[in-house]
């Protein structure tokens, strides 16, 4: 059973990201402040929840949360500053957008760049331990999946509707056949021999 809060004095915002290990697309992050009595039987680490239940939870969290925000950092910036810094930046951007400032941040993982003067606690596998982090994981995951479905319409042959940009066999085979596109993270080693961009974006128009 998830714990409702880490401490009982300060208002807590749970923070988590989605898409850190992907070959393509942005990294998304969410920050969520929940009522202290919030509980839902389906809520868990987003990786342990079905896509259907994640969608259901997203709308419940958005309705019941005291405050929430979602932000992203695109693949070009990921290539520029590296994925770790991009993940932290996405979390900072999400916290920036919270209508209500939290008194403490609960971060999923073991590292974080301090946000202003707000204390934080890094919690390994926190999305399976605390309700606010689990809620943030649900929002980050569902918003990112929705975004990758839109990118799939532009480049359907990578199968982003299924793999959401992760390095599945389907995605790797498509990379071998078509090369990389403008949404791929070029700083990642996608294949043994790094591939070039499409020779022309017009090549997608006939697919």
Q: What does this entry look like structurally?
A:
Belongs to the RNase HII family. Its EC number is 3.1.26.4. It catalyses: Endonucleolytic cleavage to 5'-phosphomonoester. It is found in: Cytoplasm. A divalent metal cation binds at residues 16-17, 108. The structure is a single chain. With 207 residues, this protein is of the alpha/beta class. The chain folds into 2 domains: 12-151, Ribonuclease H-like superfamily/Ribonuclease H (Nucleotidyltransferase, domain 5); 155-199. It contains 6 helices and 5 strands; from the N terminus they run ββαβααββααα. It has helices spanning 51-64, 75-81, 83-96, 131-154, 160-163, 169-178, and strands at residues 12-18, 27-33, 67-73, 104-108, 120-123. Strands 3-2-1-4-5 form a 5-stranded mixed beta sheet. Helix 1 crosses helix 4 (131-154) and helix 2 (75-81) packs across helix 3 (83-96). The N and C termini lie far apart (47 Å).
Which residues sit in consecutive blocks of at least 5 with pLDDT less than 50?
199-207
CATH topology of the largest domain: Nucleotidyltransferase, domain 5
- Order of SSEs, N→C? EEHEHHEEHHH
Into which percentage range does the β-strand content fall?
Answer: 5-15%
Gap from first CA to last CA: 47 Å
Number of domains: 2
Q: Which CATH-level-2 architecture of the largest domain? A: 2-Layer Sandwich
Tell me the number of helical segments per DSSP (H or I, 4 or more residues long): 6
């Amino acid at each position: 059973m998830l714990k409702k809060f880490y401490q009982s004095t300060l208002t807590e915002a749970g923070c988590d990201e989605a898409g850190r290990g992907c070959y393509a697309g942005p990294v998304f992050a969410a920050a969520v402040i929940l009522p202290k009595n919030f509980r839902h039987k389906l809520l868990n680490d987003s990786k342990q929840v079905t896509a259907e239940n994640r969608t259901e939870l997203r709308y419940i969290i958005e309705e019941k949360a005291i405050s929430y925000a979602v932000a992203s950092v695109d693949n070009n910036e990921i290539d520029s500053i590296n994925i770790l810094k991009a993940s932290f930046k996405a979390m900072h951007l999400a916290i920036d957008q919270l209508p209500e400032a939290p008194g403490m941040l609960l971060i999923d993982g073991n590292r974080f760049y301090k946000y202003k003067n707000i204390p934080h606690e890094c919690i390994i596998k926190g999305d399976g331990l605390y309700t606010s982090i689990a809620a943030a994981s649900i929002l980050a995951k569902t918003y990112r999946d929705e975004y990758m479905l839109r990118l799939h319409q532009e480049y359907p042959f990578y199968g982003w509707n299924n793999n959401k940009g992760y390095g599945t066999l389907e995605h790797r085979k498509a990379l071998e056949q078509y090369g990389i596109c403008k949404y791929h993270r070029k700083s990642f080693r996608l294949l043994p021999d790094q591939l070039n961009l499409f020779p022309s974006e017009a090549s997608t128009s006939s697919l």
